[in-house]
Amino acid sequence: MSWSFRSYFIQLIALAAVSRASPTNNDECNCYLTNGSNSAYYSQHKFYDFRNLSKYAQVPSPIRNSSRKAGVTSDYFKSDTWDNTWSIQDWNNRGKGGVSLSGDATVFMANSPNNVYIQKNDDDDAASDTFLTMRTMRMPGFQSAAEFESVSTYHYVSVRMLARVTGGAGACMALFTYLEGEDLADVQEADIEILTRDPKNRIQYTNQPSFTDDGDDIPKATRNGTLPKGLGWDDWVVHRLDWTPERSVWYVQGKEVASIEFQTPKDPAQIILNAWSDGGSWSGNMSLGDAAYMQIQWIDMVYNTTKDGEDKRSLDGEMPERSVGRESSLFRRGDNDDECKVVCSIDDVDKAGETKVLSQSAASHMVMHWTKAIVIGCVILMAI
């Protein structure tokens, strides 16, 4: 082996040692960097795990009276783990004055806490003990639906969920960011929407609004994406939405399926998940007695929050600059090194919910890794 080749080999080993990510916990991380075509920095990380909640598992009977108010289905939904982030909704789609229905709905729809519950996983090859279920069901005279939303607003987020959708046609299952506007044109929203009447390999991705007050479509606002690798939305797959200042990008199982710059939301927004139908043109009409379900094993997200007292660093100026390139993981640090000394990631980890260190700024840390790499390389070379 020539010395030039050996020298090159040592450099490769050193580079691998420096760039190697190591498992860690949130306490060590100052910020989080996502991968993909529009990677960005975020200041916070939260993981919500519904896979091992057997003591809360029960499937409640559907409520058959649209006016009946229901409580939550288990104590899990009273816990701080849930309440500190999420709130289950019970609103209905009556329009102003409480007479007509909103939009082009033809069916009265009522959200109920009774439709959000923990369910035992009875799959033959079950990878979890339980999951969270959101149910929508067509009852005589009304549609029973499910929705929960974040109690805080976020200013940019990368949110992922391991989920599947099952059941009858005529429902819409969604995860989205949302900021209400006085007029339709003022709404800011980035959507993942699964329509159960659609082919199982198709999902709608949108920066809302996707239509005008006159009912005209806005094609630039939406994409009808195809799931990769022969997957369907009735399979357990990881759905991901990256909302950044530049654009919204959507992934399935780590593969980019849509990207939209047009009408990218700019202001802080909630995160909402729902399962619904109202007989209108978007969801379609569900047959009497039919039901559809969105089942979620976990939700994982990195984000910047606007909640009082929490870190409000934005992506636009206070985080370290990111190198140019589609899969950049190198950093150019400016005057704010103290803001983000330890850069972590939730991508490509061994287990869902884990984080790993991508880089640390301390010089001693870098020297230590270089030293280890060179020693290892020399040992290997001596053996050759």
Automatic annotation (TrEMBL):
- Tell me, which GO biological process terms does this entry list? xylan catabolic process
Q: Does the keyword Magnesium apply?
A: no
Q: What keywords are assigned to this protein?
A: Carbohydrate metabolism, Glycosidase, Hydrolase, Polysaccharide degradation, Signal, Xylan degradation
Which SUPFAM superfamilies does the record match to this protein?
Answer: Concanavalin A-like lectins/glucanases
Q: What Pfam families does this protein map onto?
A: Glyco_hydro_16
Organism's domain of life?
Eukaryota
Q: Where is the segment annotated Disordered?
A: 309-331
Q: What is this protein called?
A: Putative xylanase 3
Q: Which organism is it from?
A: Gibberella zeae
